[in-house]
Amino acid sequence: MNDPAGFLECAWLNPFDSDAARAHSSYHAPHGGDLVRLLETAPPSSFARVANASFRSFVLDDAFSCLGAKSCLRRDTYRLGAYERLDDPAVTDGLARDLYAFAAERRGFESDFTTFAAVFREREYASEEAFERALWSQLQRLHDLDARYHPWDARVSDDPADPGFSFSIAGNAFFVVGLHPAASRAARRFAWPALIFNAHEQFEHLRADGRFGRLQRQIRARELRLDGALNPNLSDYGRESEARQYSGRPAGETWACPFKPRR
Fold first, then answer.
1. What is the mean pLDDT of each run of 10 residues along the chain (263 residues)?
2. Residues 6+ apart with CB under 8 A from 203
3. 195 exposed, middle or buried (CB, 10 Å; 0-12, 13-18, 19+)?
4. For a tag site, which of 40, 41, 154, 176 has the least CB within 10 Å?
5. Mapping DSSP to helix (H, G, I), strand (E, B) and coil, where does residue 248 land?
6. Cα(118)–Cα(98) distance, rounded to whole angstroms?
7. pTM of the shown model
8. Which string of DSSP letters, residue by residue, matches 155-192?
């Protein structure tokens, strides 16, 4: 950890402290080529270790397009959670606990490239539509739980049809990237269902100092080489809602996001 004292304070104040949250928490940091758990004293599970190794291989492979993700792994400014099932009520409590910890801990990373990867062992999806439904149901569960404790990040919209939308948890906005085995695009095709949470704030920092445009062009060039065409959901921030991009499935003009904010 970069700030042990600050992290211990955030762990103490974590509002997601139910028995289910503690039982399903799975917050890991890379350490010496392995993993360590930061919120609980139990050692990493065998699945957590396998998921971490697979995630590192997936992202650091030359064929993977996102350069920001590669930077996270090379700098060890990522955290990983390994869970049983996507869109499970009890698992949601643990995931919320871990995302709160990440939102607090990432402030001490001193890097604009940070990410939290939530990997789920069970439940395979035979289609992109099935994964998309599960992704939005999981985000809805997270929001319904989080709304008891935190307002939506005021820097972004809570309306998934709004071009200014970003998902919010623990008062922090995140761009969510869905991965799963049935994804049609190479950069989204991972061995297990996974949700990748990237802080919205870091994209704003990259835009402010002029790095975002160059990074975006490099990523899109790599996408073209991998898949022969850009994902049709891609758009520049502020033109269309980023909600269309979360699952990775090409969405038509009539697509409507099922997410409903609590107000």
1. 53 88 96 91 95 94 77 92 96 97 89 90 87 97 98 97 96 96 89 94 59 54 59 56 92 90 89
2. 175, 212, 237
3. buried
4. 41
5. coil
6. 9
7. 0.87
8. TSBS-TTSTTB-EEETTEEEEEEEE-TT-SSGGG--SS
